[in-house]
Amino acid sequence: METGVATDYSDASAQNRLSDGVVSLREIAPGDAEFLYQVRMDPLSRPMFRNVELVPYESHERMVRKYFETRSGDRWFLIEAGGKAVGTISLYGFEDEGRRCEWGRFVIAPEWRKSGLGRRALRLLLDYARSVGVERAHCEVLAGNTAAQRLYQEAGFVQTGESDYHGRTFLELSCDL
Ligand SMILES: CC(C)(COP(=O)(O)OP(=O)(O)OC[C@H]1O[C@@H](n2cnc3c(N)ncnc32)[C@H](O)[C@@H]1OP(=O)(O)O)[C@@H](O)C(=O)NCCC(=O)NCCS
Q1: pTM for this one?
Q2: What's the pLDDT at 72?
Q3: 87 in Cβ contact with 76 (< 8 Å)
Q4: How far is residue 123's CA from residue 141's CA, in Å, rounded to a whole number?
Q5: Index of the ligand 1 atom closest to the CA of residue 152
Q6: pLDDT (0 to 100) of residue 16
Q7: Per-residue CA distances from 145 to 51, 69, 77, 82, 87 (Å)
Q8: How far from 38 is each of 28, 34, 110, 148, CA to CA, in Å?
Q9: Which of 176, 48, 166, 63 is nearest to 118 (CA)?
Q10: Fewer C-beta within 10 Å: the chain N or C terminus?
């Protein structure tokens, strides 16, 4: 789907913000920790990930702090629409001199789902990945998570494998960018 609005990469380097005119991605800030916790720990989101446990807020805060302290090259974004935080998405695990990476930690808050925001956010993330030299991206999705699976297939991801994690099957998907 065309948005008709060019993605603004100049902003990405200056202020870590990408936008298609409806949805923006900006790098998370320490003050986003509470929102990130709420969306990830939401009972409708948690079962979709490898770690389904309710993590104590302090552990989550430590993870956010570590993101800023280590500066590992990962990019963790807040998804915003209409000036509000609506979700989160990340690029990480860069390999092969930045030509390959994984993406994930993808959640749209339940009240904002099914209005096309996830599709827009994913498109912005993949455009950004391409702009920084990523040639192939991969992700995983819990078998049976049809919402995510359909969205990823539509974006060009195809199944390249699967793995078992404590009795649950995760599909591995990849896409040339
Ligand atoms: C997956 C997720 C991020 C999608 O976000 P979203 O904003 O609701 O998605 P969109 O509205 O952009 O939907 C785009 C497409 O995804 C698919 N989709 C979205 N929700 C769906 C649902 N409940 N059932 C089936 N397909 C769905 C459809 O193909 C949809 O296209 P359509 O609107 O033309 O039918 C969101 O459902 C979510 O946060 N889920 C919980 C966490 C999660 O599963 N994260 C991914 C882990 S791999």
Answers
A1: 0.91
A2: 85
A3: no
A4: 17
A5: 16
A6: 55
A7: 15, 33, 22, 27, 17
A8: 14, 6, 11, 19
A9: 48
A10: N
Regions in the chain scoring below 70 on pLDDT: 1-17
Q: How far is the CA of 143 from the centre of ligand 1 (A)?
A: 14
Q: Ligand 1 within 6 A of 107 CB?
A: yes
Would you say 109 and 95 are in contact if contact means Cβ atoms under 8 Å apart? no
Q: Where are the beta strands (DSSP E) in the chain?
A: 17-19, 23-27, 75-81, 84-95, 100-108, 136-142, 158-165, 168-176
Question: Can you tell me whether residue 22 is helix, strand or coil?
Answer: coil
Amino acid at the residue 112 = W
CA distance 74 to 30: 15
- The H helix count followed by the E strand count for the chain is 5, 8
> 151 and 118 in contact (C-beta within 8 Å)?
yes
Residue having the nearest C-alpha atom to atom 31 of ligand 1:
151
Whether the CB of 18 sits within 6 Å of ligand 1: no
